[in-house]
Amino acid sequence: MLSFATTVFLSAFLLFQIQPIIAKMILPWFGGSSSVWSTCLVFFQAELLLGYLYVHLLHELLSPRRQNVVHCVLLLLSLATLPVIADPAWKDVAFANPTWNVLVVLAAAVGMPYLLLSTTGPLMQAWYARSFASAMPYRLYALSNLASMIALLSYPVLVEPYFRVHDQAMAWSAAYALFVVACLGSAWLSWKGVSSEREVLKVSSEPVPRPPLSECLLWIGLAMTASLLLLAMTRHLTQDVAPVPFLWVVPLSIYLLSFILCFDAPRYYYRPGFLVALPIAFLVLDRVLDGGGMEVPVLVSLMCLSLFVFCMVCHGELVRRRPPVRHLTLFYLMLSIGGALGGTFVGLLAPVIFNAYFELPIGLFLCALLVTIVLWRDLRLIRRLLLVVALLAYAYRLGGISIDYVENYRVVVRNFYGQLRVDDADEEGLGIKRRILHGRINHGEQFLAAEHRRQPTAYYCEDSGVGQALRGVAGERPLKVGILGLGAGTLATYGRSGDELRMYEINEQVLDLARNEFSYLGDSLATIVPVLGDGRLMLEREPAQNFDLLAIDAFSGDSIPTHLLTLEAMQAYLRHLKSDGVLAVHITNRYLDLRPVIAAAAEQLGISALIFDLDPAAGDRFCRHSVWVLLMPAERAAQLAKTFRGAEKLAPRPGFPVWTDSFSNLLGILQ
C-alpha cells in the first residue's frame, strides 16, 4: 500500500503545485488580469476530465496488464516535454485573443505532464482495488486531496517568497521525473499482483447494477455546482484586491478540504448540521452580493466559510451516493465532467454571454435546487411544499440582486479583463458626476457641467502627485507624456496645445467608454495617441519615446498588475524617458502597501523616489485620497522639490527584496 500511497500523494502534490507556478509565469503576458486564473482553472479541469476519461476507457476496455503497459509508455514519453516552462514567444500574440491563447500556452507548456498526473488518482485506486480486494480505495482519493491542499497552501508561504518562478518550474520538472519513477514502480507491483487475468476478468464480470442516468446526472450536477461556486467566489475575492496566488489558493484549498473530509471519513459530513448551516451561508452571500460594505478580512473570512459549507454539502451528498468499486472510474468521470462544466461556464462562457457577474447568483440557486432534489424523497408532503416555497423565494431574491447589477447604470459591459460600469450621480451644487467602475473600484470620474468638465478630478486632481508633476515639468516647449492605463482619460485635461499624450490601454472597452461617455479626450488641447495593448509589452517593442513624464496608472481591480512594478519593468520605463524625465507610479490601494516595492526598485536603479500621499481637505469634491511616487534622477528631484507640496522622500524598507519578473511576494505587502 505504501507504494500506491506515495505515488498518489506525489502526483496530487505536483498536480496542484504547478497551477500557481504556471499561472504566475504567464500572468504578465495577459495584462495581470484575474481572468487569467479563471481560464487556467478551466484548462486544469478540462485536463482532469480527459485524464479521468482516459482512466475509465483504460479500465473498461483493456486487461489489467495491458493497462500497465500503455500507461508506462505514456509516462516515459511525457518526460520528453520537460521542463515545464512557457515559451516567451507567446507574449507577442497574447493580446489578440487572451482566453484562447492562455489555453494554448498551457497546453504547450504543461499539457502532457498534467494529463498524466491527472490520471494517477483514479488509476492507482483501480489498480489498488484490483491488488487488495478487501481494501477501501476511496481513502486514496482523500489522500490525494490532502496532498493537493498541502501543495496549494505551501506555495504562497514556502515557495513564492523564496524562489524565482523559473527555478520553481525547474524544481517541479525534476520532481515530476521522480514521480514517473514512483508510478512505474507501482505499475510493476500491480503487474505482479495480477495472478491470473482470467481470474480478474471473472471477478470484474460479477453483476453489479450500473448506476442509472438520473444518478449520473445528479453526480454531475453536484460536482458542477461546487466547481462553479469555487470559481465565481474566487473571482469575487480577486477582482477588487489583486489577482495574486494567495487569493487563488485559499478558496481552492477549502474546496479540496471538503473532498478530504468527505471521502476520507463520510462521518465528517454531518448532514443535519450542514443543512442548518446552508441557509446561513446563503444569507451571508446575500449580504456580499447586495454590495454591503465590510472590512476585507471579514469579507474574505465569511466568503471562505460559506464556500466551505457549499462544498461540504455538494461533496458530502456525492459521497453518500458513491457506487460500488466496480463503477469507481465512472463515478470519477462524472465528477470531472461536472467540474469541467462549472469551470467552463464561469471561465469561458460567462464573460461572453453576460455583461455582469451573474454566475454567482446562478451557482447559489443551483446549490439550493440540488439540495431540494436530494432531500425530496426523505420529506413528507408539507415539508416538500415548504421547501419549494423557500426555493422560489430565494430565486426571486437572487433575481432582484442580479437586476441590481445592471439597473441604474448608463453602460454595463464585460470581457476577459472584467466588468465595466458607468453611472451618474447628482452632486449638490456641482451637477452630474459620471464615474467609470471596474468591479466596485472607481477608475475615474468627471463633472459634466460646462464649467467643471475640464477640471481634473479624483486621483488626478491638481494637488495629487501626478498633477503637481505635470505642472512641474511643463515649460515653454511642448511636452510628450506617456500614460499606462486610460480610465476615464482624466490626465488628458493637463494637455496643452502642441503636447502629445500617448495613452496605453489593454482593454478596448475602456477606450470606447472614455471616448463615448466622457469628454476628457475630446476636450484636450493635446494630441491624443491611443495604443491598444499591455502597456509594458508595447513599450518593450517600441523605440525610445523620450517622454518628459511617464505615468503608470494601469489597475486590475484595486491593484497594479505585478509585472508593471518589477525591476525589469522600471528599466523599460526609464529607457523611454528623457535624461531628466519623471516616472510617476500610482500606488493608491486599500489592501496592498506598494511603497517598499517601488522604494527597492528605485534604490537598485540609483534614482530618487518622492512620495505624495494626498489626503484632501474636508469638503473637497474634486480630489480623492491618492498615493503617487515620482522617480527621477537626484538632481531633477532637488530641482522640482522646491515647487512640490507634500512631497516626502520614500525610504526603502530594510531587507525588502527587489521584485523582478522571476520573483515577487504579495504576502509581504498585505496591509
TrEMBL record:
Gene3D superfamilies, sorted = Vaccinia Virus protein VP39
What name has this protein been given in UniProt? Integral membrane protein-like protein
Q: Which key words tag this protein in UniProt?
A: Membrane, Polyamine biosynthesis, Transmembrane, Transmembrane helix
Keyword Transmembrane helix included in the entry's annotation: yes
Q: What is this organism's lineage?
A: Bacteria, Pseudomonadati, Pseudomonadota, Betaproteobacteria, Candidatus Accumulibacter
Identify the InterPro entries for this entry: SAM-dependent_MTases_sf (IPR029063)
Q: Which organism is this protein's natural source? A: Candidatus Accumulibacter phosphatis
Coiled-coil regions, chain positions: none
Q: Give the transmembrane ranges.
A: 36-57, 69-86, 98-117, 138-158, 170-191, 212-233, 245-263, 268-285, 297-318, 330-350, 356-376, 385-406
**Signal peptide interval:** none
